[in-house]
Records
---
Amino acid sequence: MSDPSVPEEGLEPLLNCRNEIAAQEIRSLLEAAGMPAFVFGKGGLGLNMSDEAARHGGLQVQVPAGRVEEARGILQSIEDEASEIDWDEVDVGDMPPEVADIVESSAVTHAIRRFVVAAGPFLGILILLAAVAGIVIILAT
């Protein structure tokens, strides 16, 4: 039984991806440009496979037979267009208040973590010394 979404002419491999997110992103970009694309294989959702696993199958993006060069051209034009964006000139608008709150609380959390990392060993030694002093006092009495 054949999959009705797969073209009659069959499919050809376009490229192998190291993770599901990259493979599905490429599929989505191709489909948005009018090119049917399919992802086959197994892989962890966000986990990168080794280069070796990706070369020997991994997750494979496939396109209709005879359209590989067209698909490569689509991906190249998308890459070219993206590389021309001057992100310093893009106005993304003001930060919503709920995002500003998260960013601010994240900065506070980061500062606390830095303090704990810096003070942690010192506090650990103080606690250890206090425990040893307590044991000495108990043994001396």
---
Amino acid sequence: MASSKRKPNSALGLASKLIAKKIRFEAELRQKLNRYPREEVDEAIEHLYKIGALDDEEALRTFCAGHQGKTILSREALAFSLEEKGVRIDPSLLPEATVSELVRALALKKYSKKADLKERARAGRWLCGRGFGDGKVEQALTQYFDPCEEA
């Protein structure tokens, strides 16, 4: 009995299936299509560009938009994530999160505005772990949390 889910038997078929699920970068598609002959992959990529199904600029906008809010990342961290997908980009070309976006991320993570110093430090480590520098992190913490009482 034949399976109802048939695997695409061409580079174009697989590329179309992958793009139908989510927007992708050309480099990412090329990695996924490495089992096909290079010429066939080139033709598939060219066809997808012609019909407007493949657009690296749109993929970049979508990728950056997806890393706002709870999953916020610094420029360098975004560039690293892109490099893992086979896309090399100068981090200075990527959007940098503003302090207000960091404050919003803290709210989305549901940190209590009345947190103690331990919780505030935890929130700071969370932002630092996403690649943000001390200055921006401290500004965001100061804006988000009520002023800490001195002991």
---
Amino acid sequence: MKMYLLVTAFMLQVFGYSYAQEVKSAEEVAGNLTELMSEKLTLDEEQKIQVQAINELYAEKQMNLMHSGGSKFYKMREMKELNASKTEKLKSVLSDEQLELYEDEVIPILRERMKKQMKS
């Protein structure tokens, strides 16, 4: 169940921030996500720098995957692998409490933003 939520969150990060009238760059997506995470997880400056770097790396990979060929099933599988890798990197930066807050607070916000973007 946790993996499903994390995969969903990962996809929402890409879709929720870039499914707008103008497609945002990976840096913009990463910056928006980092700001949200900083606010909700109370990241210190060092964590913020590290999380920004992780978010930029994975936003770029997500964007490339979204614009690549292949089936939705293939993309979902690849997103799951990217998400697992990103989660491992975040574990080295965030505390256990922050990881839990990420799952409990950040993911639902991303999910809600995705729903709003899809409706407009």
---
Amino acid sequence: MSDTVNGQTGFGDGAVQPPLRGVLRLEGAALLALAVLFYHQLDAGWWQFALLFFVPDLSFLGYLSGPRIGALAYNCAHSLIGPLSLAGLAQLTGHGDWTPLATIWAAHVGFDRMLGYGLKYGRGFGYTHLGRIGLAGRTGQSAIPLSSDNA
């Protein structure tokens, strides 16, 4: 895929272009702030928040099976579908103890978006909907080797 669109480099990889990238990062910051505020209102333990905040990042282990599986695992753990579904189930089933978990999960998603870590493409970890990150952002190459079927 070409990395040049209208004479600009870096946007041919499917990433959102500025200024919308900044808007999406601001949305992430707003989500993080709202989730932290909501968590405070739940009166749940902050030790639990600190302990579980980075649990979605265990999805990185999917990259041990290659970039496509890694992207799928990462995206499942870093999309709002998961925490919103968990929060909905908590309300529908009366399991209020799941609500803090959903809130922590949503806060993590907001945190990552705020930092520019978007949902991943199967080309490699460094290719996200918010732009390239890591080694892929600096050199135009994937930080994780691509398999031959990911052309």
